[in-house]
Design goal:
Blueprint (H helix, E strand, L loop, with lengths): L6 H9 L9 H11 L5 H9 L2 H11 L13 H29 L3 H18 L5 H10 L2 H9 L1 H14 L3 H5 L7 H11 L4 H8 L11 H16 L15 H7 L3 H19 L3
The chain binds fe (ii) ion (2 copies).
One fe (ii) ion binds next to loops.
Amino acid sequence: MSDRIDLQTLRRKVEAINALPTVPATLRRISVTLEKPRIGLEELGRLISNDPALTTKILKMVNSAAYGFPGRISSVSHATMLLGLNVIKGLLLGVSVFELMEKTMIGLWEHSLGCTVAARLIAQKKGLKEPEEVSVCSLLHDIGKAVLMLQYSEVYEKAMHEAEGEGTTIYDAESRYFMANHAEVGHWLVQKWHFPPSLCDAIRYHHQPNLSKQWPMETAIVHVSDVLVRAKGIGYAGDLVVPAVNPAAWKTVNLSDGDIRDILSNLEDGAASASDTL
Ligand SMILES: [Fe+2]
Ligand SMILES: [Fe+2]
């Protein structure tokens, strides 16, 4: 379709979200900070500690079932030490994107939290070294939807209505109006915020996991989590369908029937307890 919003315009608008008055102030501030190439854990820790509301949100989140640490994490310095730079960055964005998601697409936050819990459970079953990194990636995987909705609300709403009416996914409906989909939009943002390649790749390819050549496991986990959460009916992701699992991704995660039963039974409780956090 020739009147689709072109790539250049789209990217410019997406990357300019800091300038939007409708973007929550915390998100704007965090986004500006993360654009600096060499931000350290100490500086981020200070940024959180200086903001009591942010401190409460981060500590509630890391102590929720979405993370599942055995003891209580009672301070920001303890959290940063345990979780590391990438997870803390992701959480900071996650808790500040919450407000944006609530404003743009009711249910997207619950969907994202559900995916966070599912991804951590799968990553643990697969023995990944950094299960928290994959789960924070799942928290942010659909951030592109919130930003598209914010910048192009009329067009995006139209796409959502079409997806619902036709029984297709929002991912398919987006392509009629935009030359990049929400996964690519999310990818631009996490690149801008200097996230590691594994996280960027998993966000970029979460709907086409077979295209991720370097990080197939991380990408497959985010993809499978998304489908499981939709199948379980947690939250709302912009359409009413449960897409098929990509066969290559399914093979990569290679979950047993017992694993799936276990994940599904833990999913609802985990997502519910995490959604009490904000
Ligand atoms: Fe998505
Ligand atoms: Fe999703």
